[in-house]
Amino acid sequence: MFEVASQLTKDSICLGDFPLSRLLLCNDSNYPWFILVPRREGVREIFELPETDQQQLLWESSYLSRKLNQGFGADKMNVAALGNQVPQLHLHHIVRYQNDPAWPGPVWGKVTMLSYTNSEIANMHQRIRLLLTEQYKAVE
User: Fold this and answer.
1) Which of 20, 63, 70, 111 could form a disulfide with 56 if both were Cys (CB 3.0 to 4.6 A apart)?
2) Interval 25-68: pLDDT, tens
3) Alpha helices in the chain (DSSP H)
4) How does DSSP classify residue 46?
């Protein structure tokens, strides 16, 4: 049975689902930072997914990146599947700005995570609902 890895659950907020992947918001308001987690048990690498799931994941990641880029006015979209600390397959989608605290370096470990307030989480839920209109279902 699929479950999001405990470290991801601890550090993120569930926003909704695409046909394949769960969409999480990293609980760090320093950056608009989203994570796609394919809902497949025991998968650590993209190549372990069946070909149809690989294609769906690419579509979901590309769609999410395009919508985040447009909706948040990104200077650059960072998309990565590292998995060194959390082996469960997950793809980070981080909206980057030239004036963000880590620019131009990676975001990991640069500054202390700054949790969203409840109001900011509600605003982010609404913003994502308006941005993602294809194949996405928000959690209520």
Assistant:
1) 20
2) 999 999 999 999 999 999 999 999 999 999 999 999 999 999 99
3) 6-10, 51-72, 118-131
4) G
DSSP string, 101-116: TTTTS-STTTS---PP
Name the residue type at position 129.
R
The first and second tokens of residue 137, run together, are 């279902």
C-alpha–C-alpha distance, residues 72 and 24, integer Å: 16
Cβ neighbours of 6 (radius 10 Å): 10
Q: Are 94 and 32 in contact (CB under 8 A)?
A: yes
Percent of the chain with pLDDT over 90: 94
pTM, entire model: 0.96
CB 81 within 8 A of CB 48: no
**Which two structure tokens, joined as six digits, stand for 109?**
């470990």
- For residue 140, pLDDT over 80 is answered with no
